[in-house]
Specification:
Blueprint (H helix, E strand, L loop, with lengths): L1 E4 L2 E8 L4 E11 L2 E8 L3 E8 L48
Antiparallel strand pairs: 1-2, 2-3, 3-4, 4-5
Length: 99
């Protein structure tokens, strides 16, 4: 296609559905609308208009999973003090007092 005027292009287009090539005119009607008019010869003509739309919001993919942060661990329980062990008598003999 080659520009022929303000917001207009002319040239040939190929339709893969029927395998034919058509002479066509593409006109940009506004920033959100274009019109394509194609003809095969002088008799068989058609026109199609396209409107710009906003893109749909992406949905999360099924395989994507959101990981939650690990839940905080509860604080450790305070330890009970152990009962003191009684000191056992030493098996060593006590020194004898000197006189």
């Amino acid at each position: 296609m080659a520009p022929t005027g303000a917001n207009q292009w002319k040239g040939s287009i190929y339709n893969p559905e029927d395998g034919n090539t058509y002479s066509a005119t593409l006109t940009m009607m506004s920033n959100n609308q274009i019109t394509l008019r194609g003809c095969k010869g002088w008799i068989l003509c058609g026109e199609r208009t396209w409107l710009r739309t906003s893109l749909p919001k992406e949905e999360p993919k099924a395989e994507e999973q959101i990981e939650l942060p690990p839940s905080p661990r509860p604080p450790p329980k305070p330890r009970r003090p152990r009962p003191s062990r009684s000191l056992k008598a030493s098996r060593m003999p006590l020194p004898t007092p000197r006189s």
